[in-house]
Amino acid sequence: MSPRLRLPVLVALAFTACIEPGYPLAPNGQVDIRVHVAGSLFAADMLDAEGKPVLPRQKPSETGVTLFLAEGGAPAYGGFVTVRVDPPEALVLRPYPEENTSPTCREIEGAFRCTASSEGYARFVVASESDWSGEASILVSWAEQTKEEAVEILPAGLPASATNFTMLVAGLDESLDGARVLPTFLALTCTVGPLPDDLGSKWRPGAIRSREAYVRATPPSNAPGVVEDAPVIVESLFSEAALSTTEDCAERRTRLRVLLGPTGESERFHLCFSDIGGEANFAVTSGQKQIDPGPRVVVDPEPRLLRVRALQSTATIGFEADLFEVSAFDVNRVRMKMPVDLRVEGSEHLAIEQASVTLQEEPDPATVIPALPKSEGAARLHVTPRLLSAPDCVSDPINVVAEVP
Q1: PROSITE patterns given for it (predicted)?
Q2: What DSSP character marks residue 10?
Q3: Which helix (H) or strand (E) holds 285?
Q4: pTM
């Protein structure tokens, strides 16, 4: 055969190799859609700089889909349909990972096409690759027909059917007012004179009060795996409370994201409290679940200064009088409530009736301690935090003298 006769044959063969096998499913064709995952998918809760989901993430986030194509009651071998998703940002279409065969569904000429196998089946994958949530539709089109299948995409986090959603906090003291964080008195110092201009930072490096906490939930019985890697957002709603991943609270934030593990418990984190104290409220949310009412912790202020003043330098035997003033101050130099124990050094010279008292806070008057002079000599007042021996704050001495004739 001459070269001139051979050329058309080669051109014809090359053109035939570019034609995709299959044919458009006929108008009377039928399509059955089966989604492999029975429940909902989960959206991503965080995306990276490239817009991809941050791993690990909650499952299921994707599902296989099987199509059965038929014509006249028989498998439509080679028949193809077009698949798309509405809205487009809801789901990504991908070929199904087939074993030892070519994918039955893939992108061809800008469209996602599924071609039936000899048994009439075609498979593909739909995956949630964004933080979009809601109800999406898989649309399968052929001839002038369209068939639709809904896929629900839940926000990342716990579904509404999860139960026992709670936050547990260790190391709290229970009282009539609820869970409390008590003062440590480690920052408390003494004075007999005026207040310093600065009592330091309310967040003392290395000495911030913290409590370990974690979140837990029980998964629905029909979907035990949905709690794993479910994100939980914990937020502090109080300016004097923060969250940290370390016990020393060196790095603090007002919002923390934690993930639940396979058993429904999150990793441990820490609640951090300033020396100001107050009522610390937290919001805890995960997907369709919210702890309501949110966790609440009462935090006692941390005293910074205990002032014990002698109101006069001398006292006369037999004349009871208000001889001492005792006040406690927080880091902002504001007088605060504080229970203290009282003891007189030189009790043979000066007697007090109270062994303990609760110091008054602003705007109440300062706490004064009455005493009865009994015999000549010097006496001092010792004040300590209730049931503690330190710090021991001591007043200036008061000299008890005999009555002037």
Answers
A1: PROKAR_LIPOPROTEIN (PS51257)
A2: H
A3: strand 278-286
A4: 0.83
